[in-house]
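Q: Structure tokens for this one, please.
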Amino acid sequence: MAIKITQLHHADIFGYIADFLEAAKLLGSLEKGEQLAFELVDFAQQAARDAANLPWDE
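A: Here is the predicted structure, written as tokens:
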């Protein structure tokens, strides 16, 4: 069962996004890691978009 980004607390979401971007940075430094790095950045962008639609009054 997958967890949707909207099921997480916003502080956790930002932490995960930071982790995804750090992993993408490390993968981008590898010769064959560029494609996965781009996919992680795309995923992080979508997570940020989804998080922006969450109510912030929790």
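A few notes: Residues 5-52 form one domain. The two ends are 25 Å apart (CA to CA).
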